[in-house]
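CORE FACILITY INTAKE
Project code: CF-77B
Contact: R.S. (postdoc)
Sample description: multi-component assembly, two entities in total
Requested service: structural model of the whole complex
Turnaround: standard
Below are the sequence entries exactly as provided by the requester. Do not edit them.
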Amino acid sequence: MPKVLVDGQPIEVNEGENLLEACLNAGLDLPYFCWHPAMGSVGSCRQCAVVQYQSDEDTNGRIVMGCMTEVKEGARFSLETENAVQFREAIIESLMLNHPHDCPVCSEGGECHLQDMTVMVGHRDRRYTGKKNTHRNQYLGPLINHEMNRCITCYRCERFYKDYAGGKDFGAQASRDRVFFGRQTDGVLESEFSGNLVEVCPTGVFTDKPFLAHYSRKWDLQSAPSICTGCGVGCNTAPGERYGRLKRIHNRYNYDINGYFICDRGRFGAGYVNNKERIDYAGLREVDGSYSAIRHENALATAGQWLNDKRVVGIGSPRASLESNFLLKHWLGPANFSSGLSDAEGPGMKQLIKVLSTTKANVPSVRQMQSADAILILGEDVANTAPRISLALRQAVRNKSFSMAEEAGIPEWQDAAVRNLGQDELSPLIIVTSSESRLDNIASHIYSLSPDAIADFGFSLAARLDGSDIEDEMVCGVADILSQASRPLVVSGIGSFSPDILSSAAKVADSLSNLNKKAMLSLCVSESNSMGVAMLSDEHTLSLASVMEQLDDIDTLVILENDLSRRLDRSALQKLSESKVNIIALDVIENSTLNRASMVLPAASFAESEGSLVNFEGRAQRYFPVFEPARDRLPSWHWLIKLASLDNDNKLSALACFDDVVSLLADSDKKWEEIVKVAPGQTFRDRGQKIPRQTHRYSGRTAMNASVSVHEPPQPKDNETALAYSMEGLNRDQPSTLSPYVWSPGWNSNHSVQKFQSKVDGQHKNQTPGIILISSNQNGFGESVSYERTGALEANNWTLIPIACIHGSEELSSYTKEIAELSGNAFIAISEDAANALGVLDGDGLQVIGGSAEISLEVRVVDRMAEGCVGYSVGYEETLSLAPGQTVRLAKDASWIRSKPHLIATDGASEASLGESLYV
Amino acid sequence: MERVLTRNIADDPIPINLATYEANEGYEGLKKALTDLSPEDCESIVKDSKLRGRGGAGFPTGMKWSFVPKGDACTPGHKYLVCNADEMEPGTFKDRLLMEFDPHQLIEGMILSAYTLGADIAYIFIRGEYVVSIERLREAIAECYEKNYLGKNILGSEFSLEMYVHPSAGRYICGEETALINALEGKRANPRAKPPFPQVSGLWGRPTIVNNVETLCNIPHIIHRGADWFRTLGRGEDSGTKLFGVSGKVKNPGCWELPMGTPVREIIEDCAGGMLPGLKLKGFLPGGGSTDFLTSDHLDLAMDYNVIGAAGSRMGTGTMIILDDQTCPVGMVLNLIRFFAQESCGFCTPCRDGLPWTRQVLEDIYNGRGRKEDLETLAYQVKYIGGIGNTHCALAPGAMEPLQSALKYFYSDFEKLIERNSGQQQNVARGQ
């Protein structure tokens, strides 16, 4: 490793990095603003100035920017020389000219990088006596608050939003000391990654709006390491709680998965935890059909009568923890267990697991996907089903410009220079999907095909890669691109609900792997634990359809955190409602399945319980309770132990705590052996202490409930995990899975994460990134595939394809107020040609007729749609009666009333003044 | 003295067309180059001529060109030549003269430069207010396409060149070559970090040379008449002639072509006719608003890059602004700082927020609210904003040049303004 001298001290540096990175790696505090570990350097803020000496004789040196200076063996720098110190202080003084100093009322206060850096450089007294500039703030939607006066013009927001995340509706405007970051006009930010502005902004310009409405300081939040339940990617999060309310979600750095960024569903979609519709107490259905809340002892007594010597069937859930699903299966037996996956998804998930267990390709982490130099997407709208992966793909297509930069001798972190050199040159991204996607604007090739045709395309492509003589131009072109790549990546998934597409993706990946050992295959799944529940399934596992068929032979159904109305068709639901079966439903929030239940048990949400989730790679990760479940809520695994103990044939009586459940799971099958290593158990201690969930500055603990009672309640005890509901203990070098928040002396903001990394943007110092539970035998997905093709459709017959929406399609997040606001109406997506043929415009109504469905939906005219297909917004209440692949007829709904365009609220400015200058 | 750049421009000038330009040895240099000279020959002639950039920095043109990758060293694709005609330096009006009255001279210079560099596309990035220049350049370019001085296979050679006029949307910063390139790409006119330099990665990420109008106008003559001839034109160490200008309270403000190395006194006294009656010269900015003041002690200096540099200023664009003894130097500096603070692109902190801070201190002093410590603050700012490398580009250091030299030469004027008000204003709280 090369060495450089910093203030006379030799420090070891990594080849090719810049001096700022080198200093941070060496544990030196060099202040910065515009540089970001994931976004590189542009040299705009000038805060990381140091003095560089040209030779041994040079005593004056000259000021250079740490972030823009590549370290070379033997180079000599000084951070502490008068010149450098004074310059850095002058920068802060300049940044403060127009900063409002409103820290006491600013929601960034206490975790503000600007505060930290100001303290770090020691600036105190301002000399500027002029007026401060003021800006008009914009309405940016329900998620992000805008307070432009606080801006220090570091350009990070623009660089993240436009350059990194590919957003189009936000950027820098005006010039000199009036630079303004915002949209052209007020309006909801379009990017699905807008929430990252909250963390990317070094001060309080962009803040978390829902958090603002129930604000607490960072130091007053009680946090725990958690896993996002928004989709199957498994991003790591750090939720914060106070007063029994889940206040906010922050990104939690995980090198392999989310890095520094999560999507808006993940950041804002957990508001349902505070929803008034949460279940607080057990409920029993009375004879007249109404529910009454009952004490949980009574509920259990009643449940006992329904369980003993009866046939009990359990329905699991892809959004419940692995442990809860496992207990359900273990308790009731494999033959009485259903995974709870819909019949459209179940076979696909089975296929998906088979693919992952046999593929010859590497199954990459999100970080590894970023290294791909050619990408094929088969039938998956990644931006909506696995948003964080789409963000990684956006970076992957830049590999072309990185290789150009390498040739030109420009380091990768020289962000602006690399972008200027690369311009629009992107690595190939081939998108083969049924409808438009947000990645279309970076794709080199876009093909719109029906799900069947996508699978056909994949099979032909695999055959072509194997050397078959295929004439199809499209197939040959794509085969050429992929076979020339050195790290090709195939992305597919369950999003089209087509096992055939998965098979074809497997075939393509296998064929590529025969050519190239570095080929990668990634398959997206739909929910946070779809993989876990699918892996629990075996040949005995009941499909939902077979449960419905056997309904008359079943005495009691135990439904674990599963709203069956989202997974069963209308007739099956009707049958369920009419049957005499006793239903015990455990869930976190009111839904229509609970209305059919005989008994409801209140389950703790992810924020109030512990559990493991298995992500799309087969990586098991653990989430921990952020706060104690209130009222009678209990984690589902705990309810299941209680229910099982009522059973005469109790297999679960020995289970005393969560770790026992995990051990039982580990012993149950070889594939779960490693699950105990996912996170340290509750006996883990760091220097004899548990890990504190609260910061050492946590305030008002003894007075928090004084409005109710002046008697200080004892702190809750956590007997299940290694975390404590306490300020006592160290949050320093425990495994990353047990890291509830990041803080380091002098670094109060999330930038302190660098103090926990082995090097800038590297692994966590004590990395425990979860455990990959699926390993492939590398034999390849050998099976020759035979499948039926639907024949040509008659006139005005359309194949329904599911369209996932980042806001609206996911079940739990849509119970969050802000997400519901962004979800918009359920829609039917059609091509412009179809719209012309049907005589409708965007926003009109279309009747969708087919099967048991006859509904009217709003028309959304999309840029591209496979021939003969129409899309429907999946997961919306209105579209639950539609099924993927179903054939429907469409007719204009003459009685449809177009919804009014949304009124855009403003920060007090009258509508008339909206067109005027942005500046006051 | 022989006039070179303005040989076609009479004292009462009329714009000349292609025929007139050709009649006076126009496009002879181009014909010579395309038939007799290889691009390498042309480059070495320009190098030998010791021509230095006329846009202000005075970088040797031949050396700048030598950084452009050529032949196999260059990845396949376009190379660009950009003429910087965004003349916005305060006090500067020389390029406009060249473009309005002899557009073909510039075009020939560009064709020759493009030939030398292997560039196949050329842009003239021109200040939007130069409406007449834009019109005349466009007419001249059309004439050239007709005569095949531009277009495919120029004059039957292998060399092809397309040329476009791109009127700027405004902003002083567009004169900075990398900000100009960003503006040309349709992006915010923020300068780029260097390295990489535009010669390697410029417009659209391709090798690009940006040269000033006057620099390019020299090229036809250098190629046509040789490097030796060009070097003899200068009176001092620098070669060639240059357009010098004088503005301020002199009898005859204007712009003249004179040999490099002409003494300042000759330009001010002989050409500009000296100061208006009753006024004395107190100081002058030798090369536009972003150069350091010199004083009457420096009148006998030769206008050569290194001579002016050694005296603590810069040749800049060679267009002087005169400060007389009746004008307040603080007011003059304030005026300039206002301009530069206004024109900051807003990218880097010292420029974006430092210049308005300087402006505010100067406004206080000028408007009678100055305090003693303000002078310390100004000195602090000069060091902080003016240091090379402290800022992202040269705008802010340039802006500090008149201020730092005013503090050096006219410190007592600052003090007087502060003292005059110290009694009455001391306790008046200033707007926060």
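Facility notes:
- Chain A touches chain B through 46 residues (CB under 8 Å).
- The two ends of chain A are 54 Å apart (CA to CA).
Invoice: internal transfer
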